[in-house]
Structure formats: structure tokens, C-alpha cells
């Protein structure tokens, strides 16, 4: 497999991922509902399951190693924590996983913990380091964001294990890329907002909802009017030169989105 990539085998209700290590090995993890783990209780059952779901992985991992590792590692539950407030009086405060442990699928657990420190520092500045004011203000300010990233991390599990197989979902990603290219400051895809900006997590969710709404409307409007205008515009030579590739891209995106939505 290509090095330095996260590889995913999405299978609807479950998935396997391979994370690259610095020594060019891989750490492979199987995520699935506990009853499925319990049902794979013999080497034969495990191999049958892999032959059906991850046939290419058997050769990559090796039969012996697969059986050895599977039966020597206990399946563990994944935990999310939501709690409020994070402080006790003016003396104690929970930061990081203790306040908001999340499933690991957004790669934000550590980032969020570090951002906790930045936010706390900002609030300490606002209240001249008066902990009686700082700690309640921190709890109030941080809670909607911590809960939002816990939800986003779980959402990304569904995206990774299932949605990436959906044509409609992939087309929506193309819409995001397209709108981001023409409106780079206004239209920022959810993953980019969450991962590469200081946008508050709960506002990322609100903006994604707004974007979903707009894309839904755009697909309908462009589907009817845009294609007709495209045909008219492409008749004009000068405009054609400027707009042909733009319109072709747009028309194909709209057509594919409508076709996928109809399916
Ligand atoms: C598989 C996986 C992948 C991840 N990938 C990413 C990623 O790509 N990006 C990212 O940002 N985050 C990622 N994370 C999340 C990240 O690892 C955690 O969010 C981060 O380590 C939390 O840091 P923390 O200091 O809050 O808690 P911890 O790292 O859990 O530190 C708490 C410490 O407190 C100690 N402790 C506990 N009880 C006591 C006690 N009573 N007395 C003294 N010490 C105690 C523990 O031993 C531990 O050392 C991932 C997590 C997992 C499990």
C-alpha cells in the first residue's frame, strides 16, 4: 500500500483502518459493534469474516499474524465524555480528555485539549487572572464547543465507515470544493473549518447546516435554470471561452448530483 497515508476499508456499519508508523509499518484497527467481535470466536470464523469483508488485507497482514493479533488483543469500548461545568469553585478545572474524551475519528482530541489551554489563557486575560471569574466563564464558554467536537468526532466515524461509499456524499464533497474555489473566504468545507481554523466547533456545525441548506437550494435552482442558461451562454463565442469549462464542470456536477439523489 502507498506509504504515509491513512488507509480505510469502509464497510457500512464497521470499518478497518491502517495508520502509517514512522518505521513504515502499519497499525491496523478494526472498529465494529461489539456483538460482531463476540461472534468471531474461532480462527475459522475470523478468516471467513475477512475473506468476505477485507480479502486484500489477509495477504497484506498474513493469516498467522491476523489470527495471532486478533485473539491476543481484546476489543475495547470507545468512550465519549460530555459534562458540565468543568470547574469546582475557584480551585479546580478539567481540561482535555477528562472534560471531553471523544472517539478518535476527527483527530481532534489532542488539538481540542490544546485549544482548551489557549481559550483558558484568553479568558484569564479578560478577567485579570481572577479565578473566581475565570473558571465559571471558561466552563460556560467552552462547553458548547467541547460537546460539538464530541458529536463531530462521532459523525466522522459514520462518514469514514459508511458515507464515503455514497455517490451523493462524494458529489457533495465536489460541490464543497467547487464553491470553496469560487468563494474561498465564504465557503469553507466542514473538515477544513474544524481541522485548520480556530472557528468554534459549535459554529462549524451551524455553518455546515447553513451550507447544506444552500447546496440543497443551489442544486434545485441550477438543475432547472443553470443548465438552460449554460446552453444560451455557450452560444456566445467570447463568453464561451471564459465560461465553457466553468459551465461544463457545473453542469456535470448538477447532473450527477440529481442522478445520485434520484437513485
Ligand atoms: C487511537 C487514537 C488516536 C488519536 N488520534 C489523535 C489525533 O490524530 N489527533 C489528536 O489531536 N488527538 C488524537 N487522539 C486523542 C489524544 O490522544 C487525546 O485527546 C490526548 O492524549 C488527551 O490528552 P490529555 O492530557 O487530556 O489526557 P491523557 O493523555 O489521557 O493524559 C492523562 C494523564 O493523566 C494520568 N493520570 C490519570 N489518572 C491519574 C491520577 N489519579 N494521578 C496521576 N495521574 C493520572 C494518565 O496516566 C495520563 O498520563 C487519539 C486518541 C486515540 C485513542
UniProtKB/TrEMBL annotation:
**SUPFAM superfamilies for this protein:** FAD/NAD(P)-binding domain (SSF51905)
Q: Which UniProt keywords apply?
A: FAD, Flavoprotein, Monooxygenase, NADP, Oxidoreductase
Describe the location of the FAD-binding domain by residue ranges. 60-152
In terms of Pfam families, this protein maps to: FAD_binding_3
What GO terms describe the biological role, i.e. biological process, of this protein?
kynurenine metabolic process
Cross-referenced Gene3D superfamilies, in alphabetical order?
FAD/NAD(P)-binding domain
| UniProt-recorded Gene Ontology molecular function terms | FAD binding; kynurenine 3-monooxygenase activity
Q: Which GO terms describe its cellular component?
A: mitochondrial outer membrane
List cofactor names only: FAD
Checking PANTHER family in the record gives: KYNURENINE 3-MONOOXYGENASE
The protein's name is: FAD-binding domain-containing protein
Amino acid at each position: 500500500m502507498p506509504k504515509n497515508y491513512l488507509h480505510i476499508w469502509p464497510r457500512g456499519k464497521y470499518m478497518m483502518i491502517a495508520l502509517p508508523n514512522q518505521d513504515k509499518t502499519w497499525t491496523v484497527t478494526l472498529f465494529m459493534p461489539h456483538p460482531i467481535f463476540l461472534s468471531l470466536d474461532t480462527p475459522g470464523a475470523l478468516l471467513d469474516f475477512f475473506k468476505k469483508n477485507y480479502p486484500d488485507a489477509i495477504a497484506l497482514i498474513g493469516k498467522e499474524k491476523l489470527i495471532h493479533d486478533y485473539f491476543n488483543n481484546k476489543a475495547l469500548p470507545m468512550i465519549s465524555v460530555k459534562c458540565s461545568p468543568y470547574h469546582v469553585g475557584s480551585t479546580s478545572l478539567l481540561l482535555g480528555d477528562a472534560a471531553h474524551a471523544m472517539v478518535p475519528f476527527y483527530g481532534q482530541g489532542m488539538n481540542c485539549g490544546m485549544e482548551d489551554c489557549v481559550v483558558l489563557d484568553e479568558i484569564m486575560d479578560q478577567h485579570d487572572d481572577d479565578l473566581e471569574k475565570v473558571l465559571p466563564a471558561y466552563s460556560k464558554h467552552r462547553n458548547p464547543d467541547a460537546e460539538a467536537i464530541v458529536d463531530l468526532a462521532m459523525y466522522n466515524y459514520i462518514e469514514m465507515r459508511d458515507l464515503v461509499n455514497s455517490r451523493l456524499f462524494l458529489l457533495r464533497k465536489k460541490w464543497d470544493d467547487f464553491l470553496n474555489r469560487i468563494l474561498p473566504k465564504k465557503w469553507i468545507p466542514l473538515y477544513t473549518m474544524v481541522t485548520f481554523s480556530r472557528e468554534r466547533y459549535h459554529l462549524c456545525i451551524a455553518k455546515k447546516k447553513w451550507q447544506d441548506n444552500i447546496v440543497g437550494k443551489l442544486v434545485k435552482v441550477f438543475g432547472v435554470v443553470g443548465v438552460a442558461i449554460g446552453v444560451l451562454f455557450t452560444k456566445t463565442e467570447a463568453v464561451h471561452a471564459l465560461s465553457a469549462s466553468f459551465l461544463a464542470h457545473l453542469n456535470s456536477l448538477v447532473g450527477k448530483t440529481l442522478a445520485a439523489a434520484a437513485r
